[in-house]
Specification:
By secondary structure, the chain is mainly α. Helix content is 78%, strand content 0%. The radius of gyration is 19 Å and the shape is elongated. The protein starts with a helix and ends with a helix.
């Protein structure tokens, strides 16, 4: 089973980041709140500030992606290390 999952990851048929857990009310509330704030901010900003805000949100998204990638790799390697130590 573990090798099946690794095959799925390797061939790109499985992505742990494909879904946002919509059944968690805290996450859903934060996504909704962030969206509302973004809309209000964007409407209230002038041209250069709007561009700066857009750059900020893009750099924030890029940072989050890099951090998630780092955490995914670290967690995966920790799992491999754990599995290796559990081998007889």
């Amino acid at each position: 089973m573990a090798t099946d999952i690794l095959d799925e990851l390797f061939y790109g048929r499985l992505s742990p980041w494909e879904e946002i857990p919509k059944d968690d009310p805290d996450i859903a509330q934060l996504i909704h709140q962030q969206s509302e704030i973004s809309v209000v901010l964007e409407k209230s900003l002038g041209g250069s500030d709007r561009k700066l805000f857009s750059q900020y949100t893009q750099s924030r998204a890029d940072l989050e992606t890099l951090l998630y990638c780092h955490y995914f790799k670290k967690g995966f390697l920790m799992g491999v290390t754990f599995a290796e130590r559990m081998r007889p």
